[in-house]
Amino acid sequence: MTxxxxxxxxxxxxxxxxxxxxxxxxxxxxxxxxxxLYCGICHSDLHIARNDWGRSVYPVVPGHEIIGRVxxxxxxxxxxxxxxxxxxxxxxxxCRQCASCSQQLEQYCQQGATMTYNSVDRHDQMxxxxxxxxxxxxxxxxxxKIPDGLDLKGAAxxxxxxxxxxxxxxxxxxxxxxxxxxxxxxxxxxxxxxxAKAMGAQVTLFSRSPGKEKDARRLxxxxxxxxxxxxxxxxxxxxxxxxxxxxPYAHDLNAYVPSLAINGTIVIVGLLGNxxxxxxxxxxxxxxxxxxxxxxxxxxxxQEMLDxxxxxxxxxxxxxxxxxxxxxxxxxxxxxDVKYRFVIDMKSLKG
Length: 351
Ligand code: NAP
Ligand code: ZN
Ligand code: ZN
Known about the structure:
There is one protein chain. By secondary structure, this protein is an alpha/beta fold. The protein has 10 helices and 17 strands. It has helices spanning about 45-50, 100, 150-155, 160-170, 185-200, 215-220, 230-235, 280-285, 300-310, 325-335, and strands at about 5-10, 20-25, 30-40, 65-75, 85-90, 90-95, 115, 135-140, 145, 180-185, 200-205, 225, 240-245, 260-270, 290-295, 320, 340-345. Strands 3, 4, 5, 8, 9, 16 and 17 form a 7-stranded mixed β-sheet that branches. A hairpin with an 8-residue loop joins strand 1 and strand 2. The two termini are about 25 Å apart. One zinc ion binds near residues 42, 44 and 64. The site of one zinc ion has 9 residues, from helix 2.
């Protein structure tokens, strides 16, 4: 027996998202059944809805910044009870045994983590469908606790934009006084500014958009560099220990490498594809500089990030939308016209 669920799905790379009825599995003993309250809109949702990465399997129900209320739990579940506010991010399962999983790095599971949507459940082979829907059923090991006091709407984007920027800040040991830069002020970028600031770093934003300076300062940037202005770019040569690059499309990394300090790293979290033009290696070699990548964060680290945000009162700046406006929201996101994350009020699904 399965549960009939209403969501919004893309049926092809060119089709707008529309209402879609689908089946969720019968809860297993370790499952948490969650009524979805809010779901953030990540640029990855758009990439997968439109098959930008060439691996979408339709229909796709996107959404991996999920906040909900527990409606029931399986008999093996001890950590959650009906009524709890919980979160679900980009993953809903992994092999739980490989070297990566054993180090709490489920996102790098050697058998491939089960993603919240556009993936296949490893137990029953059912397709996974994401958070643009009324409910979701997830194993308790992949469900996050939302700290008391955090605004639930603003907490939704922490489940992807938050952890994707928190994880590299922690991995590269950012602390008080560290020099950090962020490229792109969108969903990920604005969380990176807030988190780096809360860790005590000196924070710089690289943006193509001159109109964002005031917001950037409010969000935590100490300095703003307009990346199309060569003079401004040269003024930060040799400065940064870590640059978090959130740009979703191909761009010239060579423009940013000179601003890395010796031993500095530019970590790509945005682009999944090929950098164009290619990166010149002397600029890396003559400075022991690195280009790295990073994928979301493990479940324990995601809980750590949520608790950090609870302690520091950090949430995302959100613009609430009804699910019926999803296609318009995607168009606005493509124009960088969002401050700074759309979140769907899932009440609207039945409206
Ligand atoms: P977003 O809200 O659309 O923000 C992207 C920002 O990048 C824009 O606001 C813009 O900032 C800048 N930008 C956009 N297009 C650009 C271009 N062609 N050239 C230069 N700058 C550009 O997107 P997001 O939700 O933050 O996601 C960013 C990327 O991260 C997406 O590709 C997404 O798939 C990926 N992602 C990766 C992970 C991971 O685990 N690695 C997790 C989540 C998302 P300015 O106007 O300030 O320049
Ligand atoms: Zn995401
Ligand atoms: Zn694994």
